[in-house]
UniProtKB/TrEMBL annotation:
The lineage of its organism: Bacteria, Pseudomonadati, Bacteroidota, Cytophagia, Cytophagales. One of its GO terms (biological process) is regulation of DNA-templated transcription. This is Helix-turn-helix domain-containing protein. It comes from the Bacteria. InterPro entries: ArsR-like_HTH, WH-like_DNA-bd_sf, WH_DNA-bd_dom, WH_DNA-bd_sf. It comes from Rudanella paleaurantiibacter. Residues 17-95 form the Winged helix DNA-binding domain.
Length: 98
């Protein structure tokens, strides 16, 4: 069982990060406000988790202006997609052993 747990990715242990990556895996990209509304997270909480995923190389950030308003969008990087898929596979393998 310890061997199976070793395949879990610590970056996705947080419920918020798991939720963020789940959303980004099924959407090409999402705005900060879209993620905030969908996941019911505060600005600070969402920003902290997005920054951690960005620093891990799992999320790509694009900042632009729409008119005069800033618009930040996020998408899962290829490394993020791979890491998340591996994490889900490890969770599934763990569940099957129970």
């Amino acid at each position: 069982m310890k061997e199976l747990l070793a395949h879990f990715n610590k970056a996705f242990e947080s419920k918020a990060r798991l939720s963020i990556m789940s959303v980004l895996m099924v959407n090409e990209s999402m705005s900060f406000n879209g993620l905030k509304e969908l996941l019911a997270l505060t600005d600070g909480n969402l920003a902290t988790h997005l920054r951690a995923l960005e620093e891990a190389g799992y999320v790509l950030v694009q900042k632009q202006f729409v008119g005069r308003k800033p618009n930040t969008t996020y998408q899962a990087s290829e490394a993020g997609r791979q890491a998340f898929t591996e994490h889900l596979n490890a969770l599934e393998a763990f569940i099957r052993t129970i």
